[in-house]
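Reopening this one. Same input as before:
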Amino acid sequence: MSHPAVESIRCVALVGHAQSGKTSLAEALLQASGAIATAGSVERGDSQCDFDPLEREYRHSLASALVHFCYGAAEVNLVDTPGSPDFVGQALPALAAVDTALVLVDAQAAAVEPSTRRMMAWAAERGLCRMRVVNKIDAERVDLPGLLAALREAFGKEVLPLNLPADNARRVVDCFFNPEGQADFSSVAEAHQALVDQVVEVDEALMARYLEQGVIRPEELHAPFEQALREGHLIPLCFVSARSGAGVVELLEVLEKLAPNPLEGNPPVFLDERGKAFATLAEPDRHVLAQVFKVVMDPFVGKLGIFRLYQGTLRRDAQLYVGALRKAVKVGHLLRPQGRRYEEVAQLLPGQFGALAKVEDLEFGALLHDSHDEDALQFKPLPLPQPMQGLAVAAKRRGDEQRLAEVLGRLLAEDPCLRLDYHQDTQETVLRGMGELHLRYLLDRMAGTYKLEVETRPPRVPYRETISRAAEGHYRHKKQSGGAGQFGEVYLRIEPLPRGAGFEFVDQIKGGVIPGQFIPSVEKGVRSVLAAGPLAGCPLEDVRVCVHDGKSHPVDSKDVAFQAAGRRAMLEALRAAGGIVLEPLVNIEVVAPQGRLGDITADLTSRRGQVLGTDSLGPDQLLVRGLVPLAELEGYAGRLKAITAGQGSYSLALSHYEQVPVEVQQRLAREYRATPEED
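Same output, byte for byte:
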């Protein structure tokens, strides 16, 4: 079915490594299309996409930004994403909201950047049409032929130029529609021939005619070109300079004439209640189906859920359901993002971005629909990386604890690659992000946007204590102060349990020497010691306590007396039980380039780790599996980044607890004894 309005829409994300010029290119596209009079810049603070004060301070994008503009017969809806790996939580969701990924590369790059490889892989996994854009072609000391060869070596023969630089990169010459003229390198005719040869391979009838006639007109190649894009059989490459404008208009023409519209691109994957794929149809007369891919906590507007409309027409005053919630939400104000502004509109079509304000249930990944037939649908989850860099945070001023919790909740709502952990053992709230830059940005936001001061420190390692042998403990609590007295006497025995067994309390009292109503008091006194063991102040575990004897007084025995006796008897037994400190060991999995195996294994070994095995993940990547004490992994994220030139990643999972080396136990005991006791 033909829908001219939807056929004109293009949904595109600018992705790629940091400093490749994504925001500058977005500004150049906006200016060339007539959407703005003058291209802005991050440095001047007048950019349409990098408008946050911290983005001006950091000099690069920290969050994805959405703009739209018209060129020719096309309406382009564009997401400008951050390139730093620390802000991948803002970049990856954009891949779930577009049909085409424009993957930028800096012409000055000496090699294909790791983040470029990751974005290409993620875009392919989402089934997106991919185009490569080489920016800064007019910069000094660039080797464009060498870069083109490196891109083809990294991503295959499917990478073919749609245009080539000409006149010393002051302009570009078309290699597809009008393959005439001279380029700075290579041959326009040969580039055109390579494109045609690649495209016709997806259409047997067209290929047969091509082999017979030897010539195919460019206008006949539109449908197979789209098919080749969808199947990843073709990855077009364009050359531009956002600074000079070379190739910018030509890139707009490519988006208008060759980029898929929502009816042509690979549809997103939704899952029904049985986990089976559900196909959406980008037709305006169907049920409304949209997905939230970005949440903004605006200090003036409040909570904003930004979504991509996949099918149906969403109108102002419509009734929407969020996920499986049965309560409808009225669309009082239908907004459309345009950089820092939100324009109110009457309706949205498939492929367009929208925003709803002040709807608390709008969270990352939430599904919006107008029919209960879609209640059970779910969007196929994104494979987001796990945040590993941790920082313990606490309110600096007494009384700000509740406000800290609220601010952290707002930050968590905006970033799917942010995690908050509370560790009962160490009594710490740990904020985990993708790296040092990510965490520093969050702290700057707390201080600048929310005016909240916090104290930070590296997270403590959750050590534990246990015992190595059985021991006896005894204590008589007797107190007489003229009135009613206190009396309770306890004999107990402690024994080590296997690792991970926890704590066991056993009542072996016979003959009622300790009345039954006081046994819970004895247990309470014993348990009061478990929170902080006597050796290093760590939680005590893997211990069995058997209470086997004692005495009571018919008048003076009380709960408080047996609590005190149980506690002191437990402490006496622990002093004779050969206390030891346990440390957590974690399973670590490191993904890195093949050539870095030696460096990675050497580094893990230097951290008291064991390498358990390696697996190949293809020609370029490998997986290293190991077992490492958690305490030795401080600063590992930065070290791995240095070893692998930013190409490595890792994940952790708790394995078990083991006894620490003697020197570590002695150090922890010294530090505990040196800690001032609280009143």
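So the earlier flakiness isn't reproducible anymore. For the record, The mean pLDDT is 88.
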